[in-house]
Each structure stands twice: as C-alpha cells, then as structure tokens.
Amino acid sequence: MKILKLTEDTKKDIAQNLLKRSPNQYRQQEQAVATIIKEVRDKGDEAVFAFTRKFDHAEIGVHNIRVTEQEIQAAYKEIAPETVEVIRKAMANIERFHEKQKQRSWFDTEENGILLGQKVTPLARVGVYVPGGKAAYPSSVLMNVLPAKVAGVKRIVMTTPPMADGSVYAGTLVAAKEAGVTEIYKAGGAQAIAALAFGTESIPKVDKIVGPGNIYVALAKKAVYGNVSIDSVAGPSEILVLADETANKRFVAADLLSQAEHDELASAILITTSEELGNAVLEEIERMTETLSRKQIIEKSLKQYGYILIAKDVKEAVETANEIASEHLEIMMKDPYEVMTMIQNAGAIFIGDHSMEPLGDYFAGPNHILPTNGTAKFFSPLSVDDFMKKSSIISYSREALEAVHKDIETFAKAEGLSAHAASVAVRFETDTKEE
Predict the structure, then answer these.
(1) Is 328 marked active-site?
(2) Fewer beta carbons below 10 Å: N end or C end of the chain?
(3) Phi, psi (degrees; rounded to nearest 5) at 143
C-alpha cells in the first residue's frame, strides 16, 4: 500500500490506475462473451447445457436445471438456524427501507378538462443473477430480490451456477426462498445472462437483469442491454475512507481491509489530513493482514489499488473523494455530518466511527448494489425505481384543445411536420361533428 502526498499528478495517476479495473477495459473477453451469447440465442437449452458442462463441470439438463422444492428444503438443513434468523432480521430492515422509495401513480386535473399524470407500473419479469462458488453471497440475493418484491414484480427468476455435483450453494437457496424468488435455474456465466435476455426452452425471457458477477457476466449484461434492461455493468468493489487526526487507526485499517479481501482488483483508499494517522494506519494494516484468512488476496489488492493519500486540508480531501466517486465512502472526521454535506459523488456514505461498510453490506437496510468505477457521478444504488416503469397520461377536452390548437399547429409546421399539424387541425374543421 502506497503513502502519497496529494498533487494533481497523483490524482491523475490514481484515476488512470483505477480505470484499469473497469469492465470496459476487457476487450479480449468481449469476443468470447459474444460467441457464448450467439450460441445461446441460436441453440437455447442445448448451448446452456454445453457451456455448463464446459465451465462448471456439471451435468445439467431439462430434468434438473430448475431447482426443486425438495432441494430448497434440503438447503435449510445445511444452514444453521441462527443464520436463517439473521437473514430474516436483515430482510425486515431492507424491506422497511425500500418501502419508503416506492412511488405511486398520480394525476392532476383542471376545470377546462385537462388531465395529466403518471402511471407507475412494476416490471412483469425480472432476472436475478447470483454468483456461485467463493463469490456466493446470500446478502446479494436479498439486496437484488427485495426491491423487486416491494415494487410489485410478480415473476422473479434467479439463475446461479451449479457446483460440479449439480447442487447449488445452500445459503443462496435459503436466501432466495426467504426473499420470495419465483423460480431458480442452475446456470451461470455469460450463458445464463443470454438465456435470461432471449429465453430458452427452460429459462424464460425477462424484462430486466440485475445482480453481480465476474467479468464475463458484466460483459454479457453490457452486450444484451437493449434487448433487456440491466441494473449496471459493475466493476470490482471499492472503499474510500475520509479521516482526520481524530479517527481511530484500528477502525480505519479494519474497514480498508474489509474491501481489499473481496478480490485482487478491489480498491481501498484512505484520504487523510493527518500524515501521522496515515503512517499508523499502514502499520495496523500490515499487522492485521497477517491474521486474516484471505491474506494473499488482500496483499495483491493493496499492492495494486491501495492508497493512503495525504491531503493538506479537508477541502482538498473532499474534492479528491468527489473526483474518485467511490462505491463506499466512510467519513471518520471531527464533524462527519458537515463533511457529508460536501460529498457529491459516492454510492453509499457511512458517517461516524460505528458505521462501517459491512453494516451496509448485510443489515442496515439501504441497498448494497452500488455504482463502481467512478459511475457514482451519474448512477445511484439499486432501488425500487429500478423495477418500475412510468407511463405519461394525457387527456384534453375539446375546450382545452381549442384554446391551444393553433399553437400546436404552428410548432408542428415550424418543424416541417405537416401531418402533425393536420392531426390537430382536423378536429376543428367546420364540418367536424362531436360524437
């Protein structure tokens, strides 16, 4: 992990380095993903089964691609009861938070017969992708599924890669059952995304695909966008901590490590106005890393994308944080709420010493599906809005239209669209009769 003084050159170098992690940089894999998508689109189940055999070493066919109720009940026996109880507690918090996001249809009327409004409708079918293996996170199941349930989505289809024996990680099945997933299919990677986007004999086509995955999943989502909607093209996890001399060095170090352990491409950055704190945090990180189970991953992550940046003041620290636009932003400063008001770009903001990033990952309620790779400058966390669509409502009486029809005709003619103008004018021809 590097300790650097903040300069314009430093900021530029860090920005360029972090961008190397973006899915947009993986041109070589794009061709492989395009081939997989075409095969699935052309051959359906046959291609999905073949790719599952090739990549997951599992024999999946029509007879076992859909997870049965018996498999789900067996999964409950593998999961400790206290874990199921925690899942249920987390679900209650997540649902409570997302209920506040729900929008409803609205209509405004005027005395002259104008009615304008917006009709809000949930999506009919949503696909949720859940990674398998070491990246199987039941918390992500909850975060993807529950906003869809709150929105009113009727059919929630989940795909997840099977293990070699054809089974699915028990935690994933339990979380899916608790959250209310409609159906679960044993398919992973780009082939699962293609199946959800275009439909196969076994897996239904959906209207939107959400959920995290590896680079092949991310590129597949990007490739099918337009045929279906997607949540985002997510990159590796990242955390940025803003801290001053009042921060607890152990808290800061532990929180940086909590993200570095995700994978070798994860980013962990501390921006501090205290060089003394920066040095102390580095010592704590080196000491703590020795005892952690994912030591090798952490060391690679911190070597490539770990930074301790020394800022001359809070203003420079905040400006840099806004430029990086991190997925997770923690504020451990003298007046964290004042600093929070200065933050423009961040996926989720954690305020104070006892609001660490894992609190958001698992339990607090706000969604942990967040924009990465600087996209917090224009993207938001996954929300109920992602599972709803809006239709504009327009209704004019003859009286209301008569008052403005000349204006509309003038506008249409100015654009050279005479048929548009005629569509209005025909309603006021002298021989037009009201029904």
Answers:
(1) yes
(2) C
(3) -70, -30
